[in-house]
Design brief:
With 212 residues, the protein is of the alpha/beta class. Helices cover 40% and strands 22% of the residues. It is built from 7 helices and 10 strands.
Length: 212
């Protein structure tokens, strides 16, 4: 699964070009967007909820996450108008990192609005990840696929853009297979996240994600 991904031909895009290209392709009649998230430590500078989380103000972080509700609702409405089905699969390692604990509270807001998000226990794919982690990738229909890349300090620095349709199909098939194995968001959240104590300040090596 994902065996050809590391060897696929790609075009390196800086961050502004990546965002512009993704927006252009997104509006071109793609049909679906699949997002696979694997990293467990990130920074999201400029996102108020994450800033509060990083400052150790857990209650404010959760409050600010809910305040983004209308922004998320607008994203979902736009996807519906364009006929684009969104699916997101979030891989979670145990013990759950402070970042992922925070992120799942943010994603809960999105799920409450109708976003289609599942969770996959990293232990269930250890046999797939013997040589490398599954890719953190955004698959935009059969038109393009993006793998986010990071600079030396761990900040988001753009993406690798793939357009080989056979590679996109193979990667999407891998996503589909893992998504079928994923657990419903609320089932996972209620069992593993809801009763956790508020986390301390995230201090592990990190990358910059951008908007939730």
């Amino acid at each position: 699964m994902f065996d050809c991904f590391p060897h696929g031909a790609s075009q390196r895009l800086d961050r502004p070009t990546y965002h512009a290209d993704l927006s252009r392709v997104y509006s071109s009649g793609i049909g679906f967007l699949n997002k696979l998230e694997r990293g467990q430590h990130f920074k999201e500078r400029g996102f108020p909820s994450w800033e509060a989380f990083a400052d150790g103000d857990w209650e404010r972080a959760l409050s600010l996450a809910v305040e983004r509700r209308e922004d998320y609702a607008e994203e979902i409405r736009r996807a519906s108008q364009l006929g684009i089905a969104h699916r997101r699969l979030r891989v979670v390692e145990f013990p759950v990192t402070p970042y992922v604990q925070w992120e799942l509270f943010v994603l809960r807001v999105r799920v409450g609005l109708g976003d289609d998000i599942k969770i996959l226990d990293a232990r269930d794919i250890s046999h797939i990840e013997r040589h490398r982690p599954v890719p953190e990738v955004v698959i935009v229909g059969d038109a393009a696929m993006y793998e986010v890349v990071y600079d030396e300090d761990g900040n988001a620095a753009g993406a690798k853009r793939y357009t080989d349709r056979s590679l996109i199909r193979e990667t999407n098939a891998g996503f589909d297979a893992l998504y079928e194995r994923g657990e419903g968001f609320h089932d996972f959240f209620n069992r593993e996240i809801a009763d956790l104590a508020p986390p301390g300040v995230a201090s592990a090596p990190s990358g910059s994600r951008g908007s939730r």
